[in-house]
Amino acid sequence: MIECLQIDDRLLHGRVITKWITQYNPDAIVIADDGVARDEIAKMALRIAKPDGMKMSIRSVEDAISLLKNEKTRDMRLFVMVKDSENAEAIINATGDVRTVNVGGMVRNREGSKPIIGAIRMTNKDKDVIKRIYSLVDEIDIRTMPSDEKKNILKYL
């Protein structure tokens, strides 16, 4: 069961490790990103950063979807991480098992991106994808910390 799907272009970092993982207490972390899945150095850094004793899988988006649909993971509490809204939408559409989405960090200054709140930047395409995601899940919010007040993302698009 996917406890939370988080969109954060930094993937696994200090706040995720110390706050989000503690909040959701998953059995495993699944990182879904085509570029990272091919990058041995990035994978090594993520494995070093993960909490001790925590299971973690770093996969391409397609392979992550297969993993998330596998009967063996159905009974596991999973925290899924992606870098962008398009990968989040792909996982939501393919699995039908995502109820909660957190936009925790889209901080990279990509071409056409503009700040929407704090350090979160989105392109018009991101905004369109987030609007589609909104209709597919029970909850989608913008928070950098689980203790922050939940903010309705549509207000900022």
The CATH homologous superfamily name equals Phosphotransferase system, sorbose subfamily IIB component
Shape: globular
Q: Helicity range of the residues?
A: 25-40%
Number of domains: 1
Strand content: 25-35%
Mean pLDDT: 93
Would you give an account of this structure?
The chain has 157 residues and is α/β, with parallel strands linked by helices. It has a single domain, classed as Fructose Permease (3-Layer(aba) Sandwich), CATH 3.40.35.10. The protein is 39% helix and 26% strand. The protein contains 7 helices and 9 strands, in the order E-H-E-H-H-E-H-H-E-H-E-E-E-H-E-E. The strands form 2 sheets. A 7-stranded mixed β-sheet has the order 3-2-4-1-5-8-9. It has a two-stranded antiparallel ribbon with strand order 6-7. Helix 4 (61-69) packs parallel to helix 6 (85-95). The chain starts with a strand and ends in a 5-residue tail after the last strand. The model has no long low-confidence stretch (mean pLDDT 93).
